[in-house]
Design brief:
407 residues, mainly beta, 44% strand, 5-stranded mixed β-sheet, Methylamine Dehydrogenase, Chain H, 4-stranded antiparallel β-sheet, globular, disordered N terminus
Length: 407
């Protein structure tokens, strides 16, 4: 009897662990590693004609284009309600656990939030459209500290409002206030105090969220600012290298993609993309090729098996080989939109509201399933998020959660 009971308990634990083995948090903009990729597994490979089952929805976020972060059993996003920027936390059943004001909301062109919260342990960080960085307790929403970076670093806001989702790296918060000798700044994540600013770089922000890479002995911030592509020393803020990047409307909204010393950047409005090779120690870089077909506006790209995938400004989805710049194939799919790649498939969210599940074949894209996002308001600009077999879509005032776990 005793042996049977112990065996049952052990089997129950094993089954429980097996059921969550493929689950991965999505704690920041564009996923665990800020590149639109996740190690999540165990997802369905085809949806019903009407789309996956909706588990819950919430319509009351106010204005916003922010995406969703998921960490430690809570779901986070932001919206502007009235004059205030509001940070929302939901449990996995879709019930509001708490909501707090983090400061004034962006009410300029396309009013609403842009920032996706970044979760780091028991703290949450966000940057408003007005340049306020706020740190809150991730479990309770309690305010811990904030900095009004445009004012404090002598920055100036940009046409459509700051759209950066801040990067947490070690003890630092990396942000782009666009000030004099302070285009980029590092703050202490516990206190908000300034660690360094980018001396010699005084350009404005350009809607881009940075990433960090390791190259030789150096850790380097990769990002795009008003008129430049830059590599910055994470330790000191020294500008290792800088490439001119003058584009229409000074919009450089796509986070760089990186692999094995190769960095890819892209801009909309027919500017296309460029690949730069970064030296072994990270202190130098040089352009290897440019290509005009893939000109991503703000929907992001993913790097899968040595190829870049994304949708251009005119809605053409394109596969480009990272090493050579060769265009391998194109397709219209869901039109212009955002993309992530999880468990072997692309999730393509078009700006006209179509969500597509797409397989990458050697000769082209295959639309496996698609359905229409009908709830919500204004533009379909949020990026999809996936965690624990659930797909989250933000559309204006609405947040939807869908069951995509394989049974």
């Amino acid at each position: 009897m005793k042996y049977t009971r112990i065996t049952t308990i052990v089997l129950s634990v094993v089954l429980c662990l097996s059921s969550i083995a493929g689950a991965v948090d999505w704690p920041q903009f564009r996923g665990p590693t800020r590149d639109g990729l996740s190690g999540e597994t165990g997802l369905v490979k085809k949806w019903p004609d009407a789309g996956p089952k909706e588990l819950w929805s919430f319509e009351g976020l106010g204005n916003g284009y922010a995406s969703v972060s998921i960490a430690d059993g809570l779901v986070y996003t932001t919206g502007v309600v009235g004059d205030d920027g509001i940070l929302f936390a939901f449990d996995l059943n879709g019930d509001v656990k708490w909501k707090v004001t983090y400061g004034p909301g962006w009410k300029g062109a396309n009013p609403g939030t842009r920032t996706t919260p970044t979760i780091d342990g028991d703290r949450l960080y966000l940057m408003s459209g007005l340049g306020r960085i706020a740190c809150h307790n991730a479990k309770t929403g309690k305010h811990i500290w904030h900095r009004d970076t445009l004012e404090e670093f002598g920055g100036k806001n940009i046409r459509w409002g700051i759209a950066e989702s801040v990067l947490i790296d070690g003890e630092k918060v990396i942000c782009t206030p666009g000030g004099k000798d302070a285009t980029v700044a590092a703050l202490n994540k516990m206190t908000g105090k300034t660690v360094w600013t980018s001396k010699g770089l005084s350009e404005l922000s350009a809607y881009c969220s940075p990433i960090a890479i390791d190259r030789g002995p150096n850790r380097i911030i990769l990002t795009m600012v008003e008129q430049s592509i830059v590599g910055i020393d994470m330790k000191t803020g020294e500008i290792f290298w800088r490439h001119p990047n003058k584009v229409s409307y000074d919009i450089s909204a796509v986070t760089p993609a990186y692999e094995n010393g190769m960095m890819y950047v892209t801009n909309g409005y027919r500017h296309g993309g460029h690949m730069f090779e970064i030296s072994a120690d990270g202190k130098e870089s040089s352009k290897k090729w440019s290509e005009k077909t893939l000109d991503v506006h703000h929907g992001g790209v993913v790097l899968v098996n040595g190829n870049i995938h994304g949708a251009g400004t005119r809605g053409v989805w394109t596969c480009v080989e990272l090493a050579s710049g060769e265009v391998k194939f194109t397709d219209n799919l869901v039109g212009k939109g955002a993309v992530i790649y999880v468990d072997g498939l692309l999730y393509c969210y078009g700006e006209k509201g179509t969500l597509g599940l797409v397989k990458i074949n050697p000769a082209g894209y295959e639309m496996v399933s698609s359905f229409e996002i009908k709830k919500g308001t204004n533009e379909h600009w949020g990026h999809p998020s996936i965690s624990d077999g659930r797909l989250y879509i933000r559309h204006g005032n609405a947040l939807m959660c869908y069951d995509i776990k394989a049974k």
